[in-house]
Specification:
The complex is a heterotrimer.
Chain A lengths: L9 H23 L6 E2 L5 E2 L1 H23 L3 H18 L1
Antiparallel strand pairs in A: 1-2
Helix pairs in contact in A: 2-3
Chain B lengths: L3 E2 L4 H26 L1 E3 L5 E3 L3 H7 L2 H30 L7 H10 L6 H11 L6 H8 L10 H28 L4 H9 L4 H29 L3 H7 L10 H11 L3 H32 L1
Antiparallel strand pairs in B: 2-3
Chain C lengths: L1 H16 L4 H17 L8 H21 L3 H5 L12 H8 L1 H34 E2 L3 H13 L2 H14 L6 H25 L3 H9 L4 H12 L1 H17 L2 H6 L7 H10 L5 H18 L7 H5 L5
Classes of the chains: A mainly alpha, B mainly alpha, C mainly alpha.
Chain lengths: 93, 288, 306
Amino acid sequence: MSFSWMAWTWPTAAFFGTIFLLLCGMAVWEYASPGGNPRIGVLRFETTRGDRLFLSLLGSAFIHLAWLGLVGPNLWWALALSVVYAIGVFRYV
Amino acid sequence: MGRTWNNKAWFMVLPVLLLVAFSAIIPLMTVVNYSVQDTFGNNVFFWAGAEWFEEILHSDRFWEAMGRNLVFSAIILVIEIPLGIFIALNMPKKGWGVPVCLVLMALPLLIPWNVVGTIWQVFGRVDIGLLGYTLRALGFDYNYVNDPFDAWITVIVMDVWHWTSLVVLLCYAGLVSIPDAYYQAAKIDGASRWAIFRYIQLPKMNRVLLIAVLLRFMDSFMIYTEPFVVTGGGPGNTTTFLSIDLVKLAIGEFNLGEAAAMSIIYFLIVMLLSWVFYTVMTAYDAER
Amino acid sequence: MARLDETTANERTLMRQTPATAEAQTANAALARKMRRRGEESRFWWLVPTIYIIFLMLPIYWLVNMSFKTNQEILGAFSLWPRNPTLANYAVIFNDPSWYRGYINSIIYVVMNTVISVAVALPAAYAFSRYRFLGDKHLFFWLLTNRMAPPAVFALPFFQLYSAFGLIDTHIAVALAHCLFNVPLAVWILEGFMSGVPKEIDETAYIDGYSFPRFFLRIFMPLIASGVGVACFFCFMFSWVELLIARTLTTTAAKPIAAIMTRTVSASGLDWGVLAAAGVLTILPGALVIWFVRNYIAKGFALGRV
């Protein structure tokens, strides 16, 4: 049984590694201060920090796609924008 | 909710987690890996970066399929939701008619999707199908094989045939939960038929309607088998929806990179919609 | 918001006007029913469901009609019912292994899938309905995304994945692949049913000294028996109706009936009668068991959320 068909590359491995570490980080954070800090932000319904992480990641994906489609191939700017967006989500949502 | 906090519950969820992770996460990782590479077969891959995504986002073919799919979903919702409500309102409330109606109406939901396609493929044929033959006899120039408009009509009528019952059953489930006393009160107040619908029945159906709209949207957004069997995506590309296009790209043309990039965009949209579904659902449950 | 206010207003009127005695209540209810029958509900209410059911039954009738005709009759004179009813089409299917093997293959993987899905979903649904734990909401949501995911996205990686394990063209491959959407479905449906069972029952059983497995099998399972039945039915159904993944993962030995039918359609020189008979036979399993789940069918399709 070989897994060469999965065609791993360093960048994608790093990507999934980061996601995995983020999830672990969230679990530790939750363990340290349980409850997920629920609050009602600009979206008018209750979110926990897990929801905020999900919104940040999903939003970042769409920001990257929009950047590729509308602006150009330089994704570092999209990444920077995503970080700003993620901070916004964690601060206000 | 009164549920106790117990992290040992994780062990009960573990089998599901492993099973679904095997079927969902490994394929998803593979798709992500493919989407940034190019291949000529034999598991030899070349780094391509975001090129496939750029290509997809700038390809007319993708946006046309997306557009067709959105138009299709919109038409489906506009027809099926009001029709479903209307039929549910006229369903018998008690007696032998109830189980008969429920069973007969649910029947199309349980037919294998490709058989649904086959049924309509045959039914619409102008030489041997009842629908096509009758339309021809009435003087319509109906032919779903050559005429894009007729093909669309056929696919839409097929979907209405296949899935309206879902809306009916959901609305009916909402309607029967309204206590008799509500109608009684409305009667005493002298409420009109419309007022009863607007202020008693519709609010009670809110939740089920929401489920119906979201489910119908999601399922019509990933429709594959039925139109594929009836029209094969044709004539030309006029009934090629997202899933049909994706399968064509991935398995027909074996264009792994582009298909993977398209899968990811498709999946992200579905994730967003699922999230809306879930959030709205839980918000409703919390209100109750 | 206005609508909600009005509903509550209605409820308030109701409270004021409902007489206290049970007797008067039943009398009032009967009156209301009578008035309703005479009033807004016109005498022709039955027309709508009847027309709708005729619309639903016509294409199915046409398929059944064709399955009893010979090919010459189908392609020859147009007739609304078979002039010379024949069972020859069904005989072809039951005598040709390449046809009836398809049904056997489908049933094998569908049953495997149903057993696996419901077996793993039972404890998970219990956990979701009774406990809060780290990441429960997100896990539940993640399951939902798998039910909502387009099978087309997974067709290609599934082929690669099951090839790597050497499972292509086996029943277990299709059964496992269908778990992708059936396990979430089963968890959601069962969770819906389990949440309807009061928690006090669990607690009383534990106080009475029941161990968890004994409690689950002896007390809890009978209480949610209908839920398990419904979950099984829906797993069976959704595995039975799916074609794309089943077709991708099989070549000959485990090829489902649905895929065999599409092959016949695309080949030249169609045998319409046999195709129709094969179609009718795929409808039968659903038609046979639908009676038992008629009251839960809305709940099943709505992922246990009605």
